[in-house]
Specification:
signal, 132 residues, DUF4148 domain-containing protein, mainly alpha
Length: 132
């Protein structure tokens, strides 16, 4: 055996050992730091249920304001208000059927795009415009 083949064999063996060690470490089960320490004694409230309900009733406005503030911070979607009527949207959809059919056809709209002239805003230079 030559020195080069020995070097390759050692490098290969080292790689195999490293891969095996890594696979063993990854395959071992994950462990958390320990079980969650649940309270050993049951929680005893300092107030009765009726007292808490009375407090909620008395502070309804403050609780509602806090809930509203929380809801505003959640970035919930605002209701959508369209600027178009239902008839206008329906008309646009019907008018676009030909284009949708062409773009979803077997050739993915290649024939449709080739047959319709594409208009570009003035000042737009395309790489292919020099060859037309």
């Amino acid at each position: 055996m030559t020195f080069q083949s020995i070097t390759h064999s050692v490098a290969y063996a080292t790689t195999v050992v490293a891969a095996t060690l890594a696979a063993t470490l990854v395959a071992s089960s994950a462990r958390a730091e320990g079980p969650i320490a649940y309270p050993s004694a049951p929680i005893v409230s300092e107030r009765s249920r009726a007292e808490v309900q009375a407090e909620v009733r008395d502070n309804r406005q403050a609780i509602s304001a806090q809930a509203t503030e929380w809801a505003l911070q959640q970035h919930t979607a605002q209701p959508f208000m369209s600027m178009l009527s239902r008839a206008q949207v329906r008309g646009d959809y019907i008018a676009a059927r030909e284009q949708v059919d062409a773009m979803t056809s077997e050739d993915s709209g290649s024939a449709y795009l080739a047959s319709h002239a594409t208009r570009f805003p003035s000042g737009v230079a395309l790489a292919s415009s020099a060859f037309r």
